[in-house]
Design goal:
Chain lengths: 180, 86
């Protein structure tokens, strides 16, 4: 009797199979660079496509809901950092999405933060000692800003979990077919 | 009519999605399905079961949310007024 798991034992994670699989740092890094990239590297093409589809749904929904401001590295003038209004902290989990996060943050900084004067409106901040400022005419506020930021942050956090899974997953055995 | 006009004039990415402030609850199924898609992609043993598992997980989460909503509504709308009348 062989102790090798049979193909019918379909759990793919090394730890699930009870085998000590060395952590694959290359798969982890590839997974962080591109959602599903780590699994693709290991030969799990179907999983990689499924991961990418889920990530694309979350990330694109976040951007459509809240606009480019959903991925933001700077604090708009109307936020109140003293009361926990630092929106740019959400960029930390969004970084889990890989280079796409700083790319969209740069787009936001370019198109929204540096918007021309005709695309800006004067705003009066209802707080003592805070100066008047300007904001982008179509800036997302309320639920649109909250949900847009949340969608992109969850996409980044889920991708970290997915990349960690790629690091500990056993490369696909060609004899197992397309099940994994 | 105003909502239709706002939606037609919407510029994706540069403007937030119209109507979110009033209808934000409809975003919940999208969020749940997206999370389920990524989670089940690494959890299912056979990928031919992925779609069904995503549907099941999404439904379970949404039903749980609905259950909590009903329970909370009962507490706030029925139980709290009942005790506050005493």
């Amino acid at each position: 009797m062989s102790s090798t798991p049979s193909p019918s034992s379909t759990a793919q994670s090394g730890s699930q199979r009870g085998q000590a699989v060395p952590f694959n740092w290359t798969a982890l890094v590839l997974g962080l660079l591109l959602p599903g990239g780590g699994h693709l590297f290991l030969g799990h093409r179907d999983r990689a496509v499924a991961i990418l589809l889920g990530f694309a749904l979350l990330w694109s929904s976040g951007l459509l809901i809240g606009g480019l401001g959903s991925v933001r590295t700077w604090n708009p003038v109307y936020t109140k950092p003293a009361t926990g209004g630092e929106r740019n902290l959400w960029f930390i989990p969004q970084l889990g999405a890989g280079p796409i996060a700083p790319l969209f943050a740069a787009l936001d900084a370019s198109l929204i933060r540096n918007a021309s004067d005709e695309d800006r409106i004067d705003i009066t901040l209802n707080a003592p000692g805070r100066p008047k400022g300007t904001a982008y005419r179509y800036t997302a506020v309320g639920h649109a800003a909250d949900f847009g930021t949340l969608f992109c942050s969850l996409a980044g956090l889920m991708n970290i979990a997915v990349a960690l899974d790629a690091g500990q997953r056993r490369p696909r055995d060609r004899r197992e077919g397309d099940r994994s | 009519m105003n909502m239709v006009a706002t939606s037609l004039a919407w510029t994706p990415l540069l403007q937030p999605l119209p109507g979110v402030q009033e209808h934000w609850l409809w975003l919940l199924p999208v969020l749940v399905v997206g999370i389920a898609m990524m989670y089940k992609a690494i959890r299912v043993e056979r990928m031919d079961r992925w779609l069904r598992e995503v549907g099941t997980m999404s439904l379970q989460i949404l039903l749980a949310f609905g259950g909590f909503a009903v329970g909370l509504a009962l507490i706030v709308q029925v139980l709290v007024p009942m005790f506050s009348e005493r």
